[in-house]
Write a structure and sequence with these properties.
The protein is an alpha+beta fold. The chain folds into 2 domains: 34 residues, no CATH class; 94 residues, K homology (KH) domain (GMP Synthetase, Chain A, domain 3), CATH 3.30.300. The chain is built from 4 helices and 6 strands. The strands form 2 sheets. The chain has a 3-stranded antiparallel beta sheet with strand order 1-2-3. It has a 3-stranded mixed beta sheet with strand order 4-5-6. Helix 2 crosses helix 3. The longest helix has 23 residues. It is elongated and about 55 Å long. The chain starts with a strand and ends with a strand.
Length: 143
């Protein structure tokens, strides 16, 4: 399986602007800029997109892993906090923290924690980021 995305940039790094597009068309000429990446400008940025990809990937992996164990979630909500710090003077993604809350009928908290941990380790995006980036998880059943 292959997926495609593209980027276009015009102008200087700090004053220029760019667009991102993906094969599915979900993002088409979506604006991104230095200000959107490192300040409070409009548009998206690569790190935000990695966080979104990780949230989606982990949530699907959790659903899949739950299903394989005989459970079906009524709902799974996941938030990803991606941290970027300077390393050797260069902006670097240093960690990703997943927070997920799920409503899963008839599952014990310990079993849910085990399944969520497995989903974190086996999610495609987690696997792409590890081991160079620390990925942590806070998983709990929602009331």
């Amino acid at each position: 399986m292959q997926r495609k995305a593209s980027a276009r940039w015009q102008g200087s790094t700090q004053e220029g602007k760019g667009t991102l597009s993906v094969q599915s068309g979900t993002l088409k000429d979506t604006p991104y800029s230095f200000k959107a990446r490192f300040a409070d400008g409009r548009g998206t940025n690569p790190e935000e997109l990695i966080a979104a990809a990780h949230a989606g990937c982990f949530t699907m992996a959790l659903s899949f892993t739950l299903n394989n164990a005989g459970f079906t979630a009524d709902a799974i909500d996941t938030e990803v906090q991606l941290t970027m710090d300077p390393v050797d003077g260069k902006p670097t993604i240093t960690s990703v923290h997943l927070t997920t809350r799920a409503q899963v009928p008839k599952i014990a908290a310990a079993k849910f924690a085990e399944i969520a941990s497995s989903a974190k380790v086996n999610c495609v995006v987690s696997r792409a980021l590890s081991p160079s980036i620390t990925v942590t998880l806070d998983a709990a059943l929602a009331s």
